[in-house]
Design brief:
Helices cover 39% and strands 12% of the residues. With 388 residues, the chain is an alpha/beta fold. The strands form 2 sheets. It has a 7-stranded parallel β-sheet, with helices on one face. Strand 4, helix 8 and strand 5 form a beta-alpha-beta unit. Helix 1 crosses helix 3, helix 5 packs antiparallel against helix 6 and helix 7 runs parallel beside helix 8. The model has no long low-confidence stretch (mean pLDDT 87).
Length: 388
Amino acid sequence: MDGNLLYLYLKKKIRSILIDKNSSHRTYAITSLNLIKCHPFYLSKFKYLLNLNDSLLIYLREFFYFLKFFHYFSEKQINLKKGSFKNIFVSHFMSKDQKLNNDPNFNINSRSFCIYLNHTYLKREKINQYKNNTIILSRRLKILEELNLIKSQIIERKRLLKLFKKSKDFFYRTIAAESISPSTLTNLRIARQINKIVKFYGPKNLISTYEGYSWEKLIFFNANINLKKCNTYGYIPGLILKNYGSNVIKYKPEYYPNKILVSGETTKLKLNKIKYLKKKVSVLGTIKNFPKKYKLKRKINNNIMVIPEGIISEIKLFLQFIESKKLDKKIKFIIRLHPILKNNKKIINKIEKLPNCKLSFNDLAYDLERTKYVLFRGSNMVVNCINN
């Protein structure tokens, strides 16, 4: 089954689970019920799950999940200070070099509070936070809260096992196993902390990036149900591709934000064609990778800018291509890593060992000046490159 057909098949299967009358926040927390986009990286894990039709292998997978869960480490919990904020933003801390007073997605003023998901291996107490209107979430909760999370998801596992026994469809069996996966529990940890913060400050607006992840649905659900005076906004920072991701797949309405914010008119026009999203979509604009035209003093060369997404398998694919014997070794590749991988030592070491590769942390304008071509698969930065 090719990528597009697999995507459409999975979309139908996942939707049937999410809109089921018995589905709950426990169901929406399951990572494997998210089709982020029709990309080989995201589809590969589903191919593996669809081929899992051996009960013993699935039980072993669940046993591995339990071992991962009990590999517990403590981390300093969030501590909230009294204050009044009109807006709460949810964004991402992706690299130890990232400055929290210069968010890559939103312009945040002193009247607003910003919550950051920690995508690094640094403990939150080792990250310098900026003033009193930012907070980085913990990667672990207190031990009793952690036990409550796994207890809650075991209930969901039992429900999905009943569906499996009734239908004999192994997809339900694999999703039952995924209901206790480490990534599913991470979604619940994130949502629990954000919900606590939103309840504490009671903002007028909750604005979060909106890319199709489980925790997004959970925080919008909580605010929509429990905070009637709070408006919820989901911001799609990039471009919408041909096959829309799980942020716009139809599911229960209470898990959607009140409004979907997008970076441009093209995305708005695409989403407005979907009946259940019409009148929900507004253009916010973007401060991320803005397709600005620079005044370049370009030197004629054959250098190639490489802009992989924040996916390790994609970087490996590019590096295999660059190492190909068919390529002229005189060609130089300038590689710009996604922020989430800027501190990945294995990837950096691999790039630095290649004689015709150079890792760049320069401004985009500088790299545009010294490159003639761009190599990409799905990065939105290609818009900047084409514009120049």
